[in-house]
Amino acid sequence: MNPATAAKTPKIPKKTASAVASPWATAPDREQQREAKRQAVLQAAAQLFNERGFHATSLDDIAARLHVTKPTLYYYVKNKDEILLQCVSQGLQMTLEGIEASRQAGGNAVDQLRACMQVYADIVMQPFGMCLIRVGDEEVPEPSRTELRRMKSEIDQAFRRLVAQGVQEGSLQPCDPKMTAFVIAGALSWIGRWYQPGGEYTPEQVVQQCIATLCEGVLRRPEPLTAVPAKRGAAPAVARRTAIR
């Protein structure tokens, strides 16, 4: 090459090596994906347990609901007993966390009691909460059964404390906190057995009507007596009843 021509030829910059995006997920991403899939397994299982019952549901049924093979499930769970334990545990944990959040929000005993009732009723209409109600803890093998019963006891004690506090404040009628807590939790728990999504009432309507019935009762209160102003020279005023609006 002529040296003169070479001097006029522009220099071409060398290409720098660019980083190649790895098709493999990082460790945190893999763990996140695995947890998402495990939760999908639990959600599908809870729905089937609620629809068919624990004993009538097989791992094949759960795999079919997720459109995967049965061996795939073993990447995320050990067996059906573990699935049930995780479903019920999540229902209980959601309830305990919701009750604690209601307590932290403050207010008087009645405010907190209503908030706890709202949380409890909301959760028993969700798959994990419904599973907690529809599948008895006797289905869970020991030692997990004892732990689940301990967590259930925490929910009961939370209701008892709020009822006792309300009685002490004078905002609730004098009553036995233990029996009253049983009635409240029992009534709200039963929602998880009869509630069907897509029915006549929305979840919000179910919750509000049940709480109103529990807090206000079903008996009609006597209408207050008001005195009719007596006309001059007339007989003594006759009490009349006025309707509560």
**Assembly type:** single chain
Helix content: 55-70%
Strand content: under 5%
Shape: elongated
Region (Disordered): 1-36
Domain HTH tetR-type: 35-95
Biased composition (Low complexity): 1-10
Pfam families: TetR_C_24, TetR_N
What can you see in these coordinates?
Keywords: DNA-binding, Repressor, Transcription, Transcription regulation. This is DNA-binding transcriptional regulator, AcrR family. The structure is a single chain. The chain is mostly helical and 245 residues long. The protein has a domain at 83-217: Tetracycline Repressor, domain 2 (Orthogonal Bundle), CATH 1.10.357. 61% of the residues lie in helices and 2% in strands. It has helices at 3-8, 27-52, 59-66, 70-73, 80-104, 109-123, 127-134, 144-169, 177-194, 203-216, and strands spanning 225-227, 239-241. The protein has a two-stranded antiparallel ribbon with strand order 1-2. It is elongated and about 105 Å long.
List the main descriptive attributes of the protein structure presented here.
repressor; DNA-binding; two-stranded antiparallel ribbon; disordered C terminus; transcription; Homeodomain-like_sf; transcription regulation; Tetracycline Repressor, domain 2; 245 residues; 61% helix; 10 helices; mainly alpha
Topology:
Blueprint: H1 3-8, H2 27-52, H3 59-66, H4 70-73, H5 80-104, H6 109-123, H7 127-134, H8 144-169, H9 177-194, H10 203-216, E1 225-227, E2 239-241
Helix pairs in contact: 2-3, 2-5, 2-7, 5-6, 5-7, 5-8, 6-8, 6-10, 7-9, 8-9, 9-10
